[in-house]
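Box 3.1 A note on notation
Throughout this textbook, protein chains are presented in two layers. The first layer is the amino acid sequence; the second is a token string describing backbone geometry. Keep the layers aligned when reading.
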Amino acid sequence: MIALFSAGLAPAIALLSFFYLTDKFELEPLHAILRAFLYGALLVFPIMFIQFAFLEEGFAETPFIKSYLLYGFLEEFFKWFIFMFGVYTYTKFDTVYDGIVYAVAISLGFASVENILYLIAHGIEVAFTRAIFPVSSHALFGVIMGYYLGKSKFNKKKRLYFLVVALFLPIVLHGTYDFILEAIPKGYAYALVPFMIGLWGYGLIKTKNANQLYHKQIEAKL
């Protein structure tokens, strides 16, 4: 059981450490990161209950509805919601990159509990595949959400626009990820691998842009 929990948590810890340490200017307090991580972890159970209820009622019978509404919308909306009410007004959230760190922490808290539950049900043998695909995808959805939430906080003129993008874009990407799995269950790897490569590329561009934005803010103050 210890090995199973370790395998379930390890990819999330590694990914969170990577994005945390990629902050080139000021690292966030660890207690705040842990709190955001726990927020995400606690989201799993109410979301799973809602998803189970909808599936039992036959609401999500098509791959499109199941992927984009039941998984993409529901999971990303609650992550966005908990960020807005648990992190957005936090005084230490003072750069665009901070948005990425906190959103990734929330996403990986969710992904960790989900991953552990999956490993309990299916065995530790699938731990590597889970780390490469679902856990890392949750982290990258968090990067994208956090980037635009950060943009919204520091751009009053386009605040509403960036808030909407911070929710809409992760929903679409998350839904597409699950739609690939639902629509082509046997040959999903041929579509999912290119999708993940593109997602990683886009996520890393956003982390770079966020660090550059802070550098420009510092220069403007000098």
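The CA atoms of residues 67 and 175 lie 5 Å apart. The mean pLDDT is 90.
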